Amino acid sequence: MKKYLVIIEETPTGYSAYSPDLGGCVSTGQTRQEVEKNMREAIEFHLEGLRLEGFRVPQPHSYSTYVEVPA
């Protein structure tokens, strides 16, 4: 089991998501729950495609943090 960072952004029509560790793996949804479900499915599909084509499955290496600054 691998854990990939997923970035979710609110858009005018819902939400979009991508994983910095998996170039080109993106998804959308009308709600946060939907985009998370769709992104999980997109990652599974993406990894399956890499394996079928004989490519290496990337190791997760991205992380997130918050930086507090005066505003």
CATH class categorisation of the domain at 7-52: Alpha Beta
How many strand elements? Answer: 3
How would you spell out the order of helices and strands? EEEH
Distance between the termini: 40 Å
Shape: flat
Mean pLDDT: 97
Low-confidence stretches: none
CATH fold-level name of the domain at 7-52: Double Stranded RNA Binding Domain
Question: Would you tell me the structural class of the helices and strands?
Answer: alpha+beta
In DSSP terms (H or I, runs of 4 or more residues), the helix count works out at 1
Give me the side-by-side strand order of the main sheet. Answer: 1-2-3
What is the C-alpha radius of gyration, as a whole number of Å?
Answer: 14 Å
Largest sheet: 3 strands, antiparallel
Level-2 CATH architecture of the domain at 7-52: 2-Layer Sandwich
The fraction of residues assigned to DSSP E strands is 15-25%
Helix content: 25-40%
Assembly form of the protein: single chain
